[in-house]
Specification:
With about 100 residues, the protein is mainly alpha-helical. The chain has two domains: about 70 residues, no CATH class; about 30 residues. It is about 50% helix and about 10% strand. The protein is built from three helices and two strands, in the order H-E-E-H-H. It has a two-stranded antiparallel sheet. The chain starts with a helix and ends with a helix.
Length: about 100
């Protein structure tokens, strides 16, 4: 856990300033070959390489948000909350429309 205090200092600095450093907002895009054929752009796949510190911070924030989402987002909202499916609302709407049509 040698690096943890450094990450904590950086995260606190970012949260206080409400901005990322210039390097954290950047990505290096590289082309990865899809096969051994190296001619033509269609034989390559782009990949964005982000800074490690940015990815760690995003993961920490996602975990913390996930812990509070179910109590923050109302029960009628389904998308983006673990254990809830957006299809539940779609099924409900379909059933309501069918009920009204049958009346």
């Amino acid at each position: 856990y040698v690096i943890a205090p450094h990450f904590l200092d950086m995260f606190n600095h970012i949260m206080e300033r409400e901005t990322l450093t210039s390097s954290q907002g950047q990505a290096a895009i590289r082309l990865i070959p899809k096969s051994s054929v190296l001619c033509g752009i269609f034989n390559f796949r782009p990949i964005s390489l982000l800074n490690c510190d940015y990815k760690v911070m995003a993961s920490v924030l996602a975990i913390r948000l996930r812990q509070t989402l179910s109590s923050t987002i109302g029960p009628h909202q389904k998308g983006g909350v673990p254990g809830r499916l957006i299809f539940d609302n779609l099924s409900l709407y379909r059933d309501v429309i069918q009920f009204v049509d049958d009346r």
